[in-house]
Design a protein that fits this description.
With 143 residues, the protein is of the alpha/beta class. The chain folds into two domains: 57 residues, 2,3-Dihydroxybiphenyl 1,2-Dioxygenase, domain 1, CATH 3.10.180.10; 85 residues, 2,3-Dihydroxybiphenyl 1,2-Dioxygenase, domain 1, CATH 3.10.180.10. Helices cover 32% and strands 27% of the residues. It has five helices and eight strands; from the N terminus they run βαββββαβββααα. The strands form two sheets. A four-stranded mixed sheet has the order 1-4-3-2, covered by helices on one side. It has a four-stranded mixed sheet with strand order 5-8-7-6, covered by helices on one side. A hairpin with a 3-residue loop joins β2 and β3. α4 runs antiparallel to α5.
């Protein structure tokens, strides 16, 4: 028996708006089911559920979604898409969207840049000063 595991996000009556927002940002995404209480959607094949649960609980940084980006163009696209119209920037590649959900928009190359104990420290020092990641600055710091 294989159990399907997927996140359920608690919204204050905005589950459908959130699903539409996320599906507009991520390729190969769609709403697959909905009723007044729950909206189910897929982001590039990954299932999510939004619950219209009311104002009782709010999102915080204890849970975030990581977007691994191939290049600066992807970082810019996701960062700008998530932070506009009510989202907010944070530090070290973290941001929040207009619903308060936390995201980490990170370069795929980051792990490789951090692998060397000495050069990795320089990379970390560089990205600690950043909000949105700048890949070229990280590469330069790791030289």
């Amino acid at each position: 028996m294989i159990n399907e595991i997927y996140p359920c996000l608690w919204f204050d009556g905005q589950a459908k708006a959130a699903a539409e927002f996320y599906c507009s940002i991520f390729k190969n995404s769609k709403i697959t089911d909905e009723n007044p209480m729950v909206v189910i959607w897929e982001l590039d094949g990954k299932k999510f559920m939004g619950l219209n649960g009311g104002p009782h609980f709010k999102f915080n940084e204890a849970v975030s979604f990581v977007i691994q980006c191939e290049n600066q163009e992807e970082i810019d696209y996701y960062w700008n898409s998530l932070t506009t119209n009510g989202g907010s920037e944070s530090q070290c590649g973290w941001c929040k969207d207009k619903f308060g959900v936390s995201w980490q928009v990170v370069p795929k190359i980051l792990g490789k840049l951090m692998a060397d104990p000495i050069k990795g420290q320089n990379v970390m020092t560089a990205f600690m000063k950043m909000k949105k990641f700048d890949i070229q600055t990280l590469i330069d710091a790791g030289k």
